[in-house]
Amino acid sequence: MSSNSVCVFVENLAKSYKQHAVLCDIDLSLNRGEVFGLLGPSGSGKTTLVRHITGLETPDAGEVIISGKKVPDLSLLSEIGYMAQSDALYEDLTAKENLEFFASLYGLGKKQQTARIQEVMKIVRLSGDLNKPVKNFSGGMKRRLSLAIALLHEPRLLILDEPTVGIDPVLRKSIWEVFSQLQESGVTILVTTHVMDEAAKCDRLGLIQNGGLIAVGTPDDLKSRTKTHSIEDVFLTFGGA
């Protein structure tokens, strides 16, 4: 693998909280334009790992390199779109006001803001709810708005922590179609998930348990290595629960 094809390097990453190891010497690389899935049970370290990749947390050891720059680096903010597990929305504002606020943080001009807001709301199928207060949104609608915000500035690296929680299967399918379109345009996507059929759609998977990566590979490769026929069986074979 050439370094030119690599978007993200994670090397010897370790983190502990109150002497409890949460990440244990994580080594990982993401290729440009791939969909990489992190699969693991609650508490396995998925969210902590993605927060370190975005630069929101500082490791005890190791480092993260994105596009040749060591994280954290303010110049990387324009390259990364991050959707957290919990929706960071202003509930008393409308969807449009939320989008305008975050667009201004990303440095989008007024004309660009208007165009991108229309585009991302169409992607998540919320165009008709632009002027509705977020406090009146369902949980699934809030997740979709959070995804729209992460897409606003057209990032080259999209980091999504459980993006489809609370979203119905039909819309979930359409969102994954969007991921495929983004991937075709060269966007790298890192997604954490509990959903096995979503994991099967990823180009590669990292199985994480107790803060350590226990296996990395394509879905077919992992099934072949474990002599199983489903991602769920793969995970159970490697020791997941």
UniProtKB/TrEMBL annotation:
Gene3D superfamilies: P-loop containing nucleotide triphosphate hydrolases. InterPro entries: AAA+_ATPase, ABC_transporter-like_ATP-bd, ABC_transporter-like_CS, P-loop_NTPase. One of its GO terms (molecular function) is ATP hydrolysis activity. Residues 8-235 form the ABC transporter domain. Keywords: ATP-binding, Nucleotide-binding. Signal peptide: none annotated. This is ABC transporter ATP-binding protein. The lineage of its organism: Bacteria, Bacillati, Bacillota, Bacilli, Bacillales.
